[in-house]
Amino acid sequence: MNSSFDRVTLEDVAQEAGVSLATVDRVINGRPGVHDRTIGRVEAAISKLNYRPDPAAVRLARGSKSLRFCFVLPASRTSFVELLSSQLAETAKWLESQRAFVDVREADVFDPDILATLLESLGERYDGIATIALDHPRVRAALDDLAAAGKAVVTLVSDAPTANRLRYIGIDNAAAGRTAATLMGRFAARRTGRIGLIAGSLALRDHAERRFGFTQVLESEYPELCAQPPQEGRDDNERNRAIAEEFLQMPDLVGLYNMGAGNRGVAAALEASGRAAEVIFIGHELTPHTRRFLVRGTMDACINQDAGHEIRSAARVLLAHCLKEPLMPDQERIRIDIFIRDNMP
Amino acid sequence: MNSSFDRVTLEDVAQEAGVSLATVDRVINGRPGVHDRTIGRVEAAISKLNYRPDPAAVRLARGSKSLRFCFVLPASRTSFVELLSSQLAETAKWLESQRAFVDVREADVFDPDILATLLESLGERYDGIATIALDHPRVRAALDDLAAAGKAVVTLVSDAPTANRLRYIGIDNAAAGRTAATLMGRFAARRTGRIGLIAGSLALRDHAERRFGFTQVLESEYPELCAQPPQEGRDDNERNRAIAEEFLQMPDLVGLYNMGAGNRGVAAALEASGRAAEVIFIGHELTPHTRRFLVRGTMDACINQDAGHEIRSAARVLLAHCLKEPLMPDQERIRIDIFIRDNMP
DNA sequence: CTGTTAGCGCGTTCAT
DNA sequence: ATGAACGCGCTAACAG
After folding, report:
1. Is it true that domain B67-170+307-334 has CATH number 3.40.50.2300?
2. How is residue B6 annotated by DSSP?
3. Least confident segment among A153-167, A206-220, B65-79, B245-259
4. Topology agreement, domain A10-53 and domain A173-304
5. Burial class (CB in 10 A: 0-12, 13-18, 19+), B106
6. Which terminus of chain A is more solvent-facing, meaning fewer CB atoms within 10 Å of its CB: N or C?
């Protein structure tokens, strides 16, 4: 049985190696100015005693400067964005307890210049930035500049793949589109007909990727279903309702796939048409509204990314980076959730 | 803008309130022996300065006694159990960095007496226990005793609902069964026929609950599908293979639902029968094997509980309880994952 | 190259 | 009822 009921400390290591605290500290933190021979002795002692630094003591001694983070969220007030905000408010409390403070900014998702300008203005004030991104030269440049200035940067929900960020925290949208297509195909039960596609804007990388994944699978696996050209509703309920009504004119409409927000508009059109039970409706993001539509049967499946998980993951990644602490990679993987009526949380 | 670039400390509060550190500490930790008037002054200062204790300093000062946790996992060597073990090994490293050490024990899931005996023997040695459970009087009693002895206790993966544990960390198995049924019904595409059910043992609460949820939904929503009486394969691949072969004799077999482990046996029977594409196969737990079956199309959907999440959650809950630190409830909710070919992590 | 020492923010005696 | 002082394990000057 292990006799380590009381923690092994730096002192123990120093004693075991026959050196002083400072020397042990130097080799542990890879600082220069230690003879190779002593390095060896210290390392031997460390592994012999199975020493692990106490993170609490490290944090305390490393100094008390608080960190400042900035979260840039979409300006659009969709239910999903509301979820992100409320989860951020929760997480902010935890961050405060870790001596990190967050500011929230909003940016128009549809305008790369506004986002880039905002990012450029974040300048010296923050230690870390978590932001939605756009795959646009100015945005990439702004992100790269922040990274070059030594700030911790992560992209959230939507990515700028070639930018120099620490990590993208969000789902693989092409895979999400494929997932939607497979569900659509299987739920369609060999029926033949058309599938109506609705996007917020195909200029948005995530919507474009979802579309790509969706049509790819639909065409190759379910040729009896024909994906219609996507209509752009700008994530707006009214516009989406009109688009859905248009689709519902088609007698052979088998299903609707909304790749963006604005599910309420689609559901309203479906319910008004009287074809809600028959026409398959698949959308994204579990919100109070989509929950209702799933329960009612108006919506058949909801592809989700966990807003709370994304926000917490961003917080952990930024914090760990600034504090040079390790992460548990498995914990940071954002999954593509499938929700149907029966497995909602 | 807030001027709190440097953290507000106990000292600041003491000064603001015109008292000493010790007094502030007394009111913060609710210790007796402080005049009501001074309590008021201190509390005023705390909220005025928006003081939050530094958890690192608290941990450091609270002393160096390490914690000991015990994780009791199933003795059966299924892939899911392997996943639990390997995730526990990861998490154990993190726990060590938090001055907590874990031992792992194994218990036969099918024998309540063995489990109860093990739990009873855990006696004085541990500060916290995370264990699979069984809804059995002796197990409940053992759990209650541990709780009464002041140990932190959580049930993992399978629950003993009426026992006095801190929390059950696992999924709602009835809901998981309903989820499987809805997927089965929708994938079946209005076909008429039978569904073969396979369980590890119906004496296990989780398998019984899955069966209940499954048949409930199937009977009420998909009367064209007829659930066959469940066969018990004890989570064993060989037994399950035989059971599946038996089911596959039925010409009108539409699908197979395996509520337990041993998916390899079922898949083998399916693939040997030549009906793998036609017969719907739904099972539980995403493992290297079920991933393969999903990719191949042998398996149509996999209901999952995230082993890594469960282990980490158990670790966080035990640690937070022992350290009297708060939790983020949203983070501890274990979801019922649905995986199909396209959304595997 | 190596050792000494003074804190980091808080809990906890022991005095007063 | 209140305060002073020491120590938790580690980092960061500053000496040698």
Report:
1. yes
2. B
3. B65-79
4. no
5. middle
6. N
Would you call A147 helix, strand, or coil by DSSP? helix
Chain A contacts of B65, Cβ < 8 Å?
5-6
Topology (CATH level 3) of domain B10-53: 434 Repressor (Amino-terminal Domain) (1.10.260)
> How close, in Å, is residue B14 to chain A by CA atoms?
18
pLDDT digits (tens, 9 = 90+) for B89-100: 999 999 988 888
A49 class by beta-carbon count within 10 Å (0-12 exposed, 13-18 middle, 19+ buried): middle
Distance of CA B218 to the CA centre of its chain: 26
Q: Does domain B173-304 have CATH number 3.40.50.720?
A: no
Query: What is the DSSP pairing of strand B337-339 with strand B301-304?
Result: antiparallel
Q: How far apart are CA A103 and CA B8, in angstroms?
A: 19
- Number of helices (H), then strands (E), belonging to chain B: the values are 13, 12
Residue ranges per structural domain of chain A: 10-53, 67-170+307-334, 173-304
Task: List the single best residue of A96, A186, A216 to mutate versus B (max B Cβ within 10 A).
Answer: A186
Q: What is the pTM of this model?
A: 0.93
pLDDT at B1 over 70: no
Q: Which residue of A has its CA nearest to B179?
A: A342
CA distances from A66 to A168, B11, B342 (A): 25, 17, 42
Closest nucleotide (C1' vs CA) to A23 is C2
Question: Which residue of A lies nearest to B302 if distances are taken between CA atoms?
Answer: A338
The 10s digit of each residue's pLDDT in B105-148 is 999 988 999 999 999 999 788 999 999 999 999 999 999 999 99
> Is-contact A169 A310, C-beta < 8 A?
yes
- Tracing tokens 């994952």 back to the chain, one arrives at B337
**Chain B residues near residue A340 by CB distance under 8 angstroms:** 179, 182-183, 338
Sole residue written with tokens 């300065």? B49
Q: Which of A7, A94, A338 sits opposite B64 (nearest CB)?
A: A7
The answer to whether B99 faces chain A, any CB pair under 8 Å, is yes
